[in-house]
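[job 4471] stage=fold_predict status=RUNNING
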Amino acid sequence: MSDESFDRRELSTEELRERLRAAKRAVGDEGREEAIRRQHDHGKLTARERVEYLCDDGSFDEYGRLAGPAPTTPETQDWEREDAPADGIVTGVGRVDGRPVAVAATDFTVKGGSLGHTGGSKLRRVGGLALRRGFPLVLLHDGGGHRIQEGLDARPYASGGDFVFQTKLSGWAPQVSAMMGPGFAAPTNYAASCDFVPMVEGTSTMGVAGPALVKAALGVDLSKEEIGGAQFQTAATGMADAAYPDDEACLDAVKAFLSYLPTNANQSPPVDKGWEPPPEDAVAGLADLIPTETDRGYDIYRAIEGVVDRDSFFELKAQYARNIVTGFARLEGEPVGVVANNPRIKAGTFDVPACDKASRFISLCDAFGLPLLFLMDVPGVLPGPDAERQGIARHSGKVLFEVNRATVPKISVVLRRGYGFGYVLMAGGRSTDNELTVVWPTAEVAAMGIEGAVDIVYRDEVEAADDPEKRRDELVREFINRTGAVRAVEGFGVDAAIDPAETRRWVRNTLQRSGTAHEEEWPPKKHGINPL
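[job 4471] inference complete, writing structure tokens
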């Protein structure tokens, strides 16, 4: 329908309307049956089906449906609209749970989902609208990055890619990149700036370069799963937040993620009026959650379950840096961010991946006004030459930077260990301007682990004793008895020692009192300098 060799003045209005309808059908799913069948055969929804599933019924307005490829290089001079329908990307604005959302979905059935110059203009258009009016941007990736036929020419490519709108949008409105098919190169570059990156198991990939380019550049022959599969990107790198079994589950996760966040930073997070309190047995179970043996682990998810609303915890990066748990939850329907040490993984110690995971999550919550709840059981920051080579000092400094930069209400609950710098990173005591620090009866608060401290400071005394082992045990017991909950409250370093079953009430009451906006006083400056 790109042929305009007719005199439109000779056509009636109805004939012109029919030509428009026919042009739209030709580039839509209904006009491309074979291409759509191949997409379905791979177990994937089409770009328009994904958008339709994501958005509220009838709410999506598609921009640029009839856009054609740009004749920017000799290879594309003769391309018509039918050669690259909608230039391979579906863009527009719709609603998710009644709130506006800008959406861009690359279409794998068109040139492998590659992004051409016209398609790039469409993406920047909806990204610009999201930036201007302050609503989320959702990118649904299923393609191979920049279209090679339009990229091997300096004249069109010299202007470079446009990621400025993403940088400006960061912290203003939520950004999502769902990897729903091939996602090497440009899709990964977009994802790096996003707040939530889900993947689809078995069909999606991500990474700065695919297997062919890796082999050409480095001579290494790897599969796409080894370089950028869902398991690798969720567990090994943490670039992706979670992997889901199919397109529908991935899109459901996008909806769930957005449900915890405001439309933009000037608005309040949405409240779920259908909230339910945690199960009674979950609350009662907090009393005996902590083992008597201080070196034994336990299920930190039970602690979360006993404090937040029933079935409200939405975990982010569950497979990455599992020694720290991060996710959204609700208290009486209001969203909060949860940061919890996991004593079953590396004893809950902060290593480099845990620092990166925690610091980014804290920043996300602060940007969009979610109070932060820290559930602490931390032996400290990982020492040793390997950790030092990885830059543990600077990475842990990033957590400290984000904790102190955050102006949302911060609540810290010491479940068991609150040792050393880890205590500070989990917002303990007076180490940051928080709203509340409370300790459970099982709490141990000290500058470092007691046994290690005794071995360092009292080594000579222990070695000189008639029974070194007995003397060491006596010293350990003496100092452990000084680290408990009552001792922590005596100097008013924390606000209260509480029964575990009271935790939800204390957290709820504190948040209810913290609704009034409070502006921190900061020195005049452009911005703080991130430690990383």
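[job 4471] summary: The first strand starts at residue 61 and ends at 63.
[job 4471] exit 0
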